[in-house]
Amino acid sequence: MRLLVALLVIGVVVYLVTDRAPVPLERRTSEEDARPATGSYADDDRPLRDRSVANISARDGELTADNLKRQARAAADRLDDARVIASIKTKFALDNELSAGEIDVDCEGGLVTLRGTVASRDLAARAAKLAENTDGVANVRSDLRIATSEPH
């Protein structure tokens, strides 16, 4: 059962990451083609549509390559964060007393934040320790709350 939950968590994380991943450049609509280029091409007052492949300068190619490298790095960072989240949630799912459904795990650049409610301080400490001992984790912030017993 725990393995099934772990696989489900990993599948959801992969879906969310791939759903947000950058998409390839698509063909512009004719309305977009009619507008002059801006940004990197601001020093060239010709519309982008008037530039043929032969007329694109090396500088333009470098700017495009730099932009693609930045996008690739950002996508790789999101994938790393998703991998960290999946690893931590899998550890929680396989733990006898921690439930993956009760603890929300966020990760950005190796900084992991745990939110949710656990039954005791010991479980909160165990959750933080499991997260800390995961590859790719630089720091863990625990915003876990301890469940209080309500009188019946």
Mean pLDDT over the residues: 75
Shape: elongated
User: SS-based structural class?
Assistant: alpha+beta
- Helicity level: 40-55%
SSE pattern, N- to C-terminal: HHHEEHE
Q: Major β-sheet, in short? A: 3 strands, mixed
Distance between the termini: 31 Å
Strand adjacency order, main sheet: 1-2-3
Q: Nearest-angstrom radius of gyration? A: 23 Å
Count of DSSP E strands? Answer: 3
Number of helices: 4
Low-pLDDT parts are none
Can you give keywords for this protein?
152 residues, alpha+beta, 3-stranded mixed sheet, 4 helices, elongated
Q: What would you say this structure looks like, in words?
A:
- The chain is an alpha+beta fold.
- The protein has 4 helices and 3 strands, in the order αααββαβ.
- The protein has helices at residues 2-20, 30-34, 58-94, 121-132; strands at residues 103-108, 111-118, 139-146.
- A 3-stranded mixed sheet has the order 1-2-3.
- The longest helix is centred in the middle third of the chain and has 37 residues, at 58-94.
Question: How is this structure best summarized?
Answer:
This protein has 152 residues and is α+β, with helices and mostly antiparallel strands. It has helices spanning 2-20, 30-34, 58-94, 121-132; strands spanning 103-108, 111-118, 139-146.
